[in-house]
């Protein structure tokens, strides 16, 4: 949609991150003492399905929001928007890519079982430190603190509000927020909201299932 695609380096980075996180989850150790609480009878129990559905809705809403914010900055004359064209970094591609990385990290963090059956995520140092490294890289990329990292990940420089091509949506709440926060500030806020909402949703479902 709208020519959103990922470059080879981006796909490689995502593959490495996902593979590493799956491995670190798999080496998590069970607790030495048995819990008094019975584990869910099925992976498709009501609490798990509710948590997955709510997390999906959170991610979908944030994805639609950041896409709406990035579209006005997409050059209509650029070949990057052509579905079969070669990959070329755009504000839209870069925004969706960073949000997808954030969603992936949040999915692992929210759905890690931990206590009272397995060691907590913080006790699983490989997993917790890897997630912290991913979030740190996201902060660096969004703030453009270390541009070589952005260039390595084939990210387009984030535009200023004045650089938009389509001004028809200037009256929308989303573009008003972009104008106030700046594009980078808006993206950072979107990633933070996705993280907080995902964690809060997962925690609420876990509490209600106890």
Describe this structure in words.
The chain has 210 residues and is mainly α. 60% of the residues lie in helices and 0% in strands. Helix 1 (8-26) packs antiparallel against helix 4 (125-143). The longest helix is centred in the last third of the chain and has 37 residues, at 173-209. It is elongated and about 60 Å long. The model has no long low-confidence stretch (mean pLDDT 87).
Keyphrases for this structure?
mainly alpha; 0% strand; 6 helices
Radius of gyration: 19 Å
**Which range best describes the helical content: under 10%, 10-25%, 25-40%, 40-55%, 55-70% or over 70%?**
55-70%
Shape: elongated
Biggest sheet details: none
Task: Map the helices and strands.
Blueprint: H1 8-26, H2 46-70, H3 91-111, H4 125-143, H5 147-152, H6 173-209
Helix pairs in contact: 1-3, 1-4, 2-3, 2-6, 3-4, 3-6
In brief:
The protein is mainly α and 210 residues long.
